[in-house]
Structure formats: structure tokens, C-alpha cells
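Q: Sequence in, structure out?
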Amino acid sequence: MDGKMQLFAERLKSLRKGKKLTQVQMAEFMGCTEQHYQRIEYGKINVPMLDIAKLAEYFGVFVDYLLGMDFAVGGGYDLTENQQKLLDAMVRLDDDEVQVLLAVAQKLVPRPPGDPPGQP
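A: Exactly. Output:
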């Protein structure tokens, strides 16, 4: 299996599991059979670009992420290896876990004086 296809398959599986979805549910979403979806997740099928875009939108990630590119690529960010690992892990969290992580991050990074709460 090609390295990029393997990474795509791993990230897709991780995102699916993070949302506690089955392969059957994903197949229904993608409009394909369960077997076809399994082959996508095993990296056996070269997925059309429009399907990749549909998956990225569904999971709330960038197409670049699904395709195995770092967040730093084209994003103007110069991330350390640990920052990249944190972002990679973060996209696999469910909504409740994201809220916990956000609360921790807000406690770790104090806001400048006059910066209203709840603003990025």
C-alpha cells in the first residue's frame, strides 16, 4: 500500500472511531457498500477527490489532513513536532473531549488584559 494511501486510511479510521461510527454507517453516508467502504479504510481504493472533500467536511478536518499533509503545509505555521502531534491527536477527539481540552488550554494560556472571554 502506498504511504499516502495508508496514512489516509489510518486517519479516516481514526476519525470514524472518534465519532463512534461503524463502517456500515460510513458506507451509508458515502453511498457505497460496506465492503467498498472497508476497502477504502484498508487503503485498497484510490478515493475520488469529491469523496475526500465530503469526508473532510463531515469530520471537520482539512482535506490536507486526510491526505497526510502536515497542518504546517500551506498554512503559514511553523509547528514543532510536538505541536503537530497535538493537532493530529486533537482532530480525533469527540466533541466532549474537545471541550475538556479547550478548558485545559484556556487555563494554561492566560488572556491578555482587556481580551474578552470566549474570543479566540
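The longest helix spans residues 3-18.
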